Amino acid sequence: MKNIKTYYEDKLKLFSDNFVVNWHEHVREASPGELDEAHCDRLYNGCKVTFQDKVLVSVPILDEHVTIERCAQANDTVYKAMQRYPDMIMGMCFVNGGHKEKAVEEVKRCVDMGFVGVKLYHQYFINDENMNCLVEACIDMDIPILVHAGKLMRFTERQPRLSGGEHFADMGRRYPEANIIMAHIAGGGDWQWQLKGIADVKNIYTDLSGSVVDYPVVEETVKTLGADRVLFGTDGTLFAGVGKILAANIPDEDKKSILAGTSYERFIRKVNK
Q1: pLDDT of the residue at 6
Q2: Percent helix, strand and coil across the chain, each to the nearest 5
Q3: Which pTM was predicted?
Q4: 48-52 contacts, C-beta under 8 A, 24 or more apart
Q5: For the segment 82-95, what is each residue's pLDDT rounded down to a tens digit?
Q6: Which residues lie below 8 Å from residue 215, measured CB to CB, with a gap of 6+?
Q7: 237-251 tens-digit pLDDT
Q8: Based on the number of CB atoms within 10 Å of its own CB, is 37 exposed (0-12), middle (13-18) or buried (19 or more)?
Q9: What H or E segment, with its residue span, contains residue 259?
């Protein structure tokens, strides 16, 4: 009988033998602008034992009226995580897009520090006109935008401007040059609605993060979008996220494409030059 270590390594060969990019994770603040180092260490160690090569993190702020100064503090926290583990951790710059030119300035500051792209929360729907300035700047900088998303079936008042598939589809059609990720297809709510909304809008991608592990969320996502529009992510459900793709009833080549984020790999390579 195989020992536990050998059994574990065999199960994770898909990860250990291939390039793996986790497009959706978070670090935490101990206080504004200061990294919770213990949490960061746990994230790093968990990703290391599951053979993840690059992990993109952010510190989103839930406050509806979050200031640009508070966004900068959150991004400074991310930068400290990047410095702590430069071999693995990469940053996504959180901004409140409603700050328009000031938000763009903060994104440029972060890109100069080596951040890969932008993270948006639910301060605005992604297709709100207030987002145009930021999206156009991201097109010019050739960086992706990861957007908190979902189609809630209850407690909708908690996130009144939560972007759904229809919002992403509208923005994607208006800006076909944009690279936009509709976050955590497995984050709860009506994921089938989400997929239906973006199915025909080729520049809208999704990641597999979220606590939903039910069959057939991964299979239907790949069937609807194609593996080239699906990215690996965990968003706080690290080991469940790994198990989700290992157990998925899809071809191994699709799993490898998702893990590498093949369509988005150039964004990683550009920063790692």
Answers
A1: 72
A2: 50, 15, 35
A3: 0.95
A4: 48/88, 50/12, 50/15, 50/238, 50/239, 50/242, 51/12, 51/15, 51/16, 51/20, 52/15, 52/20, 52/21, 52/22, 52/88
A5: 999 999 999 999 99
A6: 249
A7: 999 999 999 999 999
A8: middle
A9: helix 252-260
DSSP 249: S
Distance CA 204, CA 103 (A): 22
Quick check: 229 and 206 in contact, CB under 8 A?
yes
Q: How far apart are CA 206 and CA 186, in angstroms?
A: 10
Phi, psi of 82 (to 5 degrees): -60, -40
3-state secondary structure of 138: helix
Contacts of 1 (CB under 8 A, 6+ apart): none
How far apart (Å, rounded) are the C-alpha atoms in residues 147 and 149? 6
pLDDT tens figures, 192-227: 999 999 999 999 999 999 998 889 999 999 999 999
